[in-house]
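User: My collaborator sent over this chain with a note saying "see what the structure looks like." That's all I know about it. Can you take a look?
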Amino acid sequence: MLGCADMGVCLHRSSSGIDLPMKISDMFGCGLPVCAVRYNCLDELVEEGTTGFMFDEPEHLASLFVKLLSGDARSLDKLRQQVISKYASKRWDSEWNRIVKPLITGTHDESVEIDAPKDR
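Assistant: Without extra context I'll predict from the sequence alone. Here is the result:
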């Protein structure tokens, strides 16, 4: 179903302010840019203008819809291509085998780069 959409919308609000919604990862995995309700740590997942947009008010979401869905389709296509290029190689199994499995089995290689959260 997600693969049929033009963009994703996430209305998740974190009660703790520190959790990230998996639905956005699912959308990114399908190549969908996302419009999401803004909260403290969401910028660790949604890169404003690169993988999607964050909004605070319904009017802002409406303006994003107008901008992305009724205007020049190139801006939505550009976002989609940026999401695909950023997340195409990041699949659950490959990331597990690269990062988690070595930690569990004791074969962790210090040279493996792990994407760290941005400094705030």
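A starting point for your reply to your collaborator: The domain at 2-90 is CATH 3.40.50.2000 (Rossmann fold).
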